[in-house]
Amino acid sequence: YHDPTPKLTAPSHPTPPSGLGLIDGLGRYPGGPKSPLSVINVEQGKRYRFRIIGLSCDPSYNFTIDGHTMTIIEADGIETVPETVDSLPVLAGQRYPVVIYANQPVDNYWVRAPSDFANQTFAGGLSQAILRY
After folding, report:
1. pLDDT, tens digit, for every residue of 78-97?
2. How many CB atoms lie within 10 A of CB 127?
3. How far, in Å, CA of 5 to CA of 85, rounded?
4. Residue 6 phi, psi (nearest 5)
5. pTM of this structure
6. What does the alpha-carbon distance between residue 26 and residue 84 come to, in Å, rounded to a whole number?
7. Maximum Cα–Cα distance for the chain, whole Å?
């Protein structure tokens, strides 16, 4: 059914690094390679629905997009009264569909999702993506 713990913690199966955060399926981890960051392309004047999901088992994340607000339209599958926020704390297992308005000047903006682990940093692109107009 599953591998026993001693087999999973053997040198041939190293523990995944902590501090790893994925945004749209891409991410980096401390001491790892400078893999590409996710780039989310938008057109100025349009609005976009993002589905933010906390797929962690331990840390929570604070999701933000520099210079943008998000309108929460649903929480864990239940429609809500729309609420506009500039950051969104996401705990393990939570799901938040939000609407983003691409109403800023054409440029690149950081999408960030730092965890609540101690000493969280954005050095080297950790827990970041790019919103590109």
Report:
1. 999 999 999 999 998 999 99
2. 24
3. 42
4. -55, -35
5. 0.82
6. 27
7. 54
